[in-house]
Fold each of these.
Amino acid sequence: VISSDIAALCESIVGAAHVRRDEPTRLAYGTDGTSYCAAPDLVVLPGRADEIAAIARLCTEHLVPLVPRGAGTGYSGGAVPAHGGILLSLERLNRIVELNQADLVAVVEPGVITSDLHAAVERVGLFYPPDPASLARSSIGGNIAENAGGPRAFKYGTTKQYVLGLEAVLPNGDAIRTGGRTVKNVAGYDLTDLIVGSEGTLAIVTRATLRLIPKPPETATVRAFFESVGSAARGVDRLLAARVLPAALELIDGASLAAVEWHLGGVALAPPGTAALLLIEVDGSLAAVAAEIGHVERACAEAGATRIDRARDAAEREELWRVRRELSPALKQIAPIKFNNDVVVPKGKIPELCAAVERIGRDHGVLVPTFGHAGDGNLHVNIMVEDTREARDRAASAERALFEEVIRLGGALTGEHGIGLTKAKYLGLQFSDVEIALMKRVKHAFDPAGILNPGKIFPAEDSDKSTPQRR
Amino acid sequence: VISSDIAALCESIVGAAHVRRDEPTRLAYGTDGTSYCAAPDLVVLPGRADEIAAIARLCTEHLVPLVPRGAGTGYSGGAVPAHGGILLSLERLNRIVELNQADLVAVVEPGVITSDLHAAVERVGLFYPPDPASLARSSIGGNIAENAGGPRAFKYGTTKQYVLGLEAVLPNGDAIRTGGRTVKNVAGYDLTDLIVGSEGTLAIVTRATLRLIPKPPETATVRAFFESVGSAARGVDRLLAARVLPAALELIDGASLAAVEWHLGGVALAPPGTAALLLIEVDGSLAAVAAEIGHVERACAEAGATRIDRARDAAEREELWRVRRELSPALKQIAPIKFNNDVVVPKGKIPELCAAVERIGRDHGVLVPTFGHAGDGNLHVNIMVEDTREARDRAASAERALFEEVIRLGGALTGEHGIGLTKAKYLGLQFSDVEIALMKRVKHAFDPAGILNPGKIFPAEDSDKSTPQRR
């Protein structure tokens, strides 16, 4: 617990109204999109970069843990203040500072909500592709911290490909600028790309310059049903062989589909025997879209699709996306706890991963609906569990088995959510001791005092404080 | 000068045939695409990653400078062994290890020549977009070290966007793997993106996993002439406003055009009064290309183009690109020395940069033909000089004035070539002391002994050895 002196110093920096110690606030800011919670000692809501610098300086001086937080929608406990200390909410830095059509950039503060940025740039015919599922609530700062992806990442890349430059505060309070407002920029080390995806452990982003592109004028959407994940994967291969690069290429497995059908009151969404569904979207000029969607349908038919639906207008397009959007609420009704794992495997290994997921579910007696981004090999493998100690233990061993399989297939523990708190203990499955030691030296280069978002990414050492518990 | 013992140890690692001490070899490997030369004490040509690890271990142990080298086509002295020591040529590691169509990846050794990779992946309908001008001679390892770009970077991004994973050797000989074979991967810090573009100062890449995409089936090319850089820039803005994202968008100024005309024996390539030429290429499906090239022509016409040529076949396309390809040999005939600066400014600042370049040329009495990638704001500003002390001094002050202007316009010192040796003294124009100190700590995290490619990126300190001279 930090002293009243520190609280008073924080108040002198950001104003008393923006420092909160009451328990409801501390608990509310101690959570994210996972079921983990750890209340911070203090919630501080700065309004400017220089206030953030002063708070950071204070924390380094007094060795107080400092945890930056965006909108709290993360799925790896990255914003949960595992070691207590000061929770730094960036919600008040929420301005779109500049939208420059000549330079094709937007300059934003970290608290801007992702969908607000989408709306602002699309109003002038521009496009910011990253589209994490949480975009209506997530903040750009959080997207940057986790290098957020989304369905469009297969064609357009993840957040990293759209961050041209950052203004950030180091843990000691020093302000830095990285990158700039150009796509090409090879002066010095690329600290921008190092900070993007560093889960708030290296620096606190106070402003970002984002790359925009012209908005593709047209979109077409197709949904295809398959009797096996293997034939869906063949469909994906065939459409890539036809040289189509879809803007979205989503796979939903039979268990996920069943959950949605049940959630929607027993309505049958798919032909009997459906084991996989592909949702495919192409975008570009009218002419390109017309040609490509034909290739998509042919590819699915050749791969053995049992039914193919094409949206004829925006309403039908919404209807096709409905299953995808209903997945999260549907899964929440199946079981109270969801171990949401966003593993990633090489694209060609998706059938093997899905077979392994089925086997792991059977072996551990857990339901594991799986869906995700087939083009990227990035699947959301949801281990559903009852809220009992025994069920959680089973889920935990299923999770470890999943990660071991993913690494065996040449994949990675996480494609979108980050390691954070929830996967820190598995880091050694993917990285050698030499690699982890190197990452720790990089962390030390930014944060020698070790105050910024401690307890994240790296497996806990003996000296670490106890980790927070699931709620 | 390093001892015979070290040479003998190197011979025991890679075999006597692959260690060279003769002066012609040392001089040949002491150069790159600049006019700088510094002979190494020893040239070592390893054949395997484990040999590289053993050489690195030896160098760290004996504090011998170790300089990795690809094909020596760099334009910033990055591979010039400024402090002597061992020059490690990676030319023997030149295998395309795997070309995996299911995963859409190629696994390559660093010595693979860029155009050989292009040919191999295009044979199976795939595409590796990065296309530095030197692609017929440059190596993938060098492209990775410098984060190479090229005309296609505006639409497709630079080398960084296509490197999914690396195998590398740290200066102490430890082998690491970074990233993997998936686009999405947010486990741990992104050391892949940190090593790409680090100019051979952090680690020695021994193998890279590269992302491939479907090859766009069609291409169309247009050339448009303008009476000012401003109207060419308006043409670029108009085609982006028409939501066209060209695969190439090259700008060539009047001075560069005049040089090519002179080089080709006085042939008139452009209408009288031409001050700028745009070379625009779109790619994608047949239908998309047909529609987009129409938008391109309209945009150029509306911006006041005095003539627009469209290629009707591959031969005509080659002819349109001819001016661009003849630029380098043409410039070489104007003056013996070329200060080749690949500065980058925000896209909207191109007219201002071109005006500044003209003014700087006038003020310093130097000819400054300029061309480059208009979509990226990445221009090659060539300060042409006679080989006299006085002319070089004038060119040096023109160069400094150029860099100051670029930074004032919100740009960066280098978009493609890197800082290397030639721009190290200017690093402080772009970065603060805090930022440079942070980069040095990152360097130290990888290379505590400071043996890997010393004298690059960072401005020389008093303790540094003397820097090499232009030839």
Amino acid sequence: MADNAHDFSSTRLAIFGPGLLGGSLLLAGRALGIADIRIWGRSERSIAEAAPFADLATTDVAAAAKGADFLILCVPVEAMPALAVDLCRSRSWAPTAIVTDVGSVKGMVMRHVAPIFAQAGVDFVGSHPMAGSERAGFAQAKADLFVEAPCIVVPSENAAATARVVAFWEALGSRVTRMEAARHDHVVARVSHLPRVAAAATLFSALGRDASDADFAANGLKDTVRVAGGEAPMWRGILEANRDAVLPCLVDLRDAIDDFIELLRREDGAGLEKRLAEAKALRAQHLPPRQPPLP
Amino acid sequence: MADNAHDFSSTRLAIFGPGLLGGSLLLAGRALGIADIRIWGRSERSIAEAAPFADLATTDVAAAAKGADFLILCVPVEAMPALAVDLCRSRSWAPTAIVTDVGSVKGMVMRHVAPIFAQAGVDFVGSHPMAGSERAGFAQAKADLFVEAPCIVVPSENAAATARVVAFWEALGSRVTRMEAARHDHVVARVSHLPRVAAAATLFSALGRDASDADFAANGLKDTVRVAGGEAPMWRGILEANRDAVLPCLVDLRDAIDDFIELLRREDGAGLEKRLAEAKALRAQHLPPRQPPLP
């Protein structure tokens, strides 16, 4: 580990996965002045766009990790255990290395990924920068993606390693909160995984019977279902990995819709208005206007 | 009616209701070069902001309508019948007058508002410019609100009056479609009224148990619930007026969520991914990226 936990200029950074998050880390790391940044992808095609920005772009896990002291796993959560096994087989990293990730689920990662690294004698600290988008791939990557974005860090038993990972995200401009994995998973089930499913269900009910109705859709429907544009395999992985936390949210959602159905069925106008006003107040109090969308 | 159905320069336009839509009509009418525009509001306070842009701003229905040949009702749907009765009591409009509206529900308006005007010998043509927002009031009004916005016109038996109303919206830049009231109400239940309820229900399930989770909400949740910011009394009126069309949509939404619950419960990963991919495809095919939000 570097002498100064907040200095990343001499870091040798290895990024595994060249998508929106991994690609943005590459660009943000460059902007931060990190001297040596490697990026790994599963295929030559997957790393072609990122290669011009990296010191090394490779499909060889051991080559990407060689001598690196800060490793970030940016592959889908369900692909992390296998990648961890590959990495630990080579053990080509620097003796001071720390590993973190960007996975949207932390319980599964701390249970099934962290122990693989622990066995190999390297510290794993879980991270979740909440800066995703329904758009995927390096083409959407931005150097400032993490600026002002919330980032949750799941501490490891090694306080110095945890501090180093926190400092990394703060150097990129993120607002870091430390949180246990179980609490993290419950929070993101509510504020991130639930909306993905709600958006898909709203799409089916809005356009499932006659998609040509979309000709009359204004920005309301478009915004409500935007996150339904997220990649299906990635979201399958997230929902499966966080199943226990997501299921109760979906039951709450179903019950909230049943409430509205009941209010309308029994023509309870006052009750209906009260619920609509509660929703408006909840939004006004807790969800300030969004950042502008990606261009 | 003017000799040229597409010339509005000599129109005497009376706008009833100085909110987002009425206010935007005032500004758009000015930009179009309409010489005489009056605006009516329920209280002096409600018309204060609009007054500087109008030839007359008044709380007197008869004064606003006096000599007008194009009248637009921009009050909430549930307030329209009483306003229509007031207007027909004075009958101060020009002999060539046409009346239209901007209501989000058309069946109720054609059943309960159009006949009041028919009895008074004036043609009513239903309109629904789909350019609303969760933001309300004249402060949000924009001269270009209707540009490129879909606008549904419900034809009256008088083809010339219908053509004049269509020409009006087209002059403001809207993309007009003619549609029967019942079909309109089914379409907007799906693409507009359903998302409002889905957004509210998503908010309750996301933040209803612990609103502090909002600290970790990214743009995904914010966009998904944006339309829950709409005014509660107005939306109560819309949902009540379009109850018969909205209820089946909500049942479809509830069923779509139940499907997701079942897929997760029985750990049907392939089925889950298939549904997520269907939603992504439905969005990609039918909902192009949204217009930028209001500033």
Amino acid sequence: MSKKLLRVLRGERVDPPPIWLMRQAGRYLPEYRELREQAGDFLSLATIPDLATEVTLQPVRRFMLDAAILFSDILLVPWGPGQRLEYVSGTGPVLSPIRSAADLLRLSPARLSSAIGSVAQTVRRVRGALGNASSDVALIGFAGAPWTVACYMIEGRGSRDFVAPRMMAYRNAALLDGLIGLLTETTISYLTAQADAGAEAIMLFDSWAGLLPPSQFRRYILAPNCSICAAVRQRFPGLPLIGFPRLAGTMLGEYGVATGVDAAGIDTSVSPEVAASLLPSGVAVQGNLDPLAVLVGGEELEAQTRYILTALDNRPHIFNVGHGILPNTPPKHVEELVRIVRQGPSRPFGRDPAGQTAT
Amino acid sequence: MSKKLLRVLRGERVDPPPIWLMRQAGRYLPEYRELREQAGDFLSLATIPDLATEVTLQPVRRFMLDAAILFSDILLVPWGPGQRLEYVSGTGPVLSPIRSAADLLRLSPARLSSAIGSVAQTVRRVRGALGNASSDVALIGFAGAPWTVACYMIEGRGSRDFVAPRMMAYRNAALLDGLIGLLTETTISYLTAQADAGAEAIMLFDSWAGLLPPSQFRRYILAPNCSICAAVRQRFPGLPLIGFPRLAGTMLGEYGVATGVDAAGIDTSVSPEVAASLLPSGVAVQGNLDPLAVLVGGEELEAQTRYILTALDNRPHIFNVGHGILPNTPPKHVEELVRIVRQGPSRPFGRDPAGQTAT
């Protein structure tokens, strides 16, 4: 009996679908806030294996989700090789921006190995803990895809439109190619280490894929995602891969074909029916509830959840949000969501399968 | 002999396609900056018919474009009925936010008529000027679509993610429905006045359509866009309508079917081929060059332009950018763009049709 999430990733329809949630470990959980305070800063929380293991397990224990996702941050990959990184309250991550070849050359990819070591340690511990506690929970490892990580590295912080990296694609494509190439290599090492340590599936987050016109999407999204998927697959045949080209919209189908991912994450704006029709038929769809619906709860949470369940009923489907859980989300709403998903699309909420009102 | 833009809007393929550019009148033109300085503030420039007429005509004269678009602002529709509006340098528009029924009731839609009057006056003057100077130039009127205008009215300013209006869709849908209803009505009056004054096509800008999950997209994008298109069409049968559901992605096909627009604008992230396949076959496609490519110029401008021309070669197509022209764009690059588009997809740039290098 294999784990539900892994069965869906092999192309099987599972009813009800497995559920996990992007940013399921995080500030909305009181037990997370407590550990975060103990750790002092975010980077310690993400890199001390004992703490990262505990944070990874918290939501799985509380909500009985079908997957744990490694607690980490996509910016460990630039931070490991030496890019200055600070988490500023109210602003988010702030980095010393990469704007020239000299900036790029100051990074030493070899130094990534210590960050990799701590993350691999976390993966091993989580896997050990899951093995004992709940054998149906799969462990997902992850990394940011090269373009998305490059966006932060070049801009130096979060942004509405990331003009600096988009401009670099036009004015200094050679430098951007170099950075994307470096990130492709380091991401392969990083993910290989996670798979070696016991990750059972890998997810690549390309949160800023939607910023690029088609030709640049092919060069900076498709090509590096392809290389990473191919390299990971060569070393770990059969290890399932989930891609998340956020806001890719009409490029979703081409992304699915080109990368050969086993599942594609879709963001909140996407029509699940159209996504299913654009993607090759064997590819599972992961998503795509509006995180605001979880924050607010009640009728809209129920209606949107059922809509997604119904729309993807005939498809290998992993239920998820379309973007990360928001910090002010009441944990009770996540409980409610899990309950609705486990009831499946056809059974009205609050009624038992025979159609009688429960209470 | 009808105007090229109008022929495409009736479903005809025209080679080379007509071209105009979103924000073709604006800060990147020295003649605009001069008038802007004379006017003092932006709202005067947009509402004094002499000035708005001149600004509307500037890019058409300079670049011989196939269409003039009324120089105005989508926020005249809330400003007219009394919402406080200021343009703050470096920040953009700042409004007193609408957060309650009381805020909404303070607006008096009847007061919109004076703003409507000045805009209609501008349309009449532009139409008169175009009639004499260049009979192939079509005049496009426009408005913001209700959801997009509501985003600014509720948030009170531009934003990365417009949390306030998105939250209102969950927590106070009745108030949002009321505001969208009011905007639908005033937008119909506003566009009717523009058509009466001589606008030859109408464009509805839904710049923030991409923020909503499918169910809310249907309620706040499809429904009001439909109502507006139907009402305008009833009063002006045959007046072509262009919709621009920016970042709608996979919802584009449903938008085209539901609204019955004659053309759909597509943003920079969209695959022109997929857009063409999602939209009903009679609907023209308008777009979608990256404005950064125009700012930067050179090889990428040429390559991306030719790619779009080729991808939409078999489709009624209006060449445009996928988002507004950027303030630092050199006017010379717009000239270059117009030249490339007029050469068509198959003729290599810098060579004459016989294949010899021109100089």
Amino acid sequence: LTESFAKDVNRFNKVPAIKEGDLKLAESVAIFHCLGRREIIPSRWYPKDIKSLARIDEYLEWQHGNLLNEAGMLFYMQWVIPFQTGVKPKAEDIKNQIAALNRNLSDLEKIWLKKSDFLVGNEVTFADLMAVSIIEQVVGLNLFELDARKYPNVNKLMIDVRGYFGEPYEKAHKVVNDYGVKFKSMFDHGEA
Amino acid sequence: LTESFAKDVNRFNKVPAIKEGDLKLAESVAIFHCLGRREIIPSRWYPKDIKSLARIDEYLEWQHGNLLNEAGMLFYMQWVIPFQTGVKPKAEDIKNQIAALNRNLSDLEKIWLKKSDFLVGNEVTFADLMAVSIIEQVVGLNLFELDARKYPNVNKLMIDVRGYFGEPYEKAHKVVNDYGVKFKSMFDHGEA
């Protein structure tokens, strides 16, 4: 990104970021809260009751130490490091990382989705979109296979969220899937 | 923690967690938001205006990918892994991890604290407490030395937050400092 973007929009020079009046704001979760408080996004996405909001926050925090972290690490190990160094990851490291990601999916399946179809109650919220799009990325990039029989609740969530957001969702993830196909052979280790 | 704690308070069986009526909530940031919305914590800690809240959220997200992550990794490398495996970390890995933490401190110094004494405006907020207590932990555990000349803004923030919270703050961090002294020799590598 450009120097003027850093100066005028986000001082960390990253996306996503918004600029509204004199407020320049980065970080998707912070943006989500801000738009929710301003009632710019639908209330089903940003519920008004404190309990649902608390549960969304709890998920967004949990995600950092778990799903987002482990998925990000897998991407880093299998794509970023090999791309930067030309050295393939060790099969065992990848195996351990996939096991860590499976532990997160197991928590999603058995704890988060134990009592309801969505992460917070019976309506789709921002939390679901975040969760599903993380999984979508590791699957789309051919880093991970989602076992629908092992994780039926997670699989249903993926289908429901895809269905709910429809074309814009597919369009956004097509980029990821195209990269997955394009670079699969480049980074194919045939061992992990 | 006990099975009944997992059942009755936090299904992830971790602290911090709160139980209020039928709401069982984990994750410090989620708890902070919840208590803030209920007006249980002072409004200076949980400002009412959307801009200040947005900036607090932005910091809390930034922290995950930066200060909290790198400090946690340093702790993990220098304490958890050696404790579990008996194998000392490589001096170079520790050096790189300390460099990563210094990059975060540099961002705190030059970006976050560029225009004001605190992370969000001119009053102490939850964001400051989070930031300072992370630094306090790596310093207290003898994993990291804060160079006050290199980071005068961060150093001032540490002093201000300590002064603001006084005795409860000192008491909470005494545990960390005691561990730091107690185990320093156990894990002292003399090389990092």
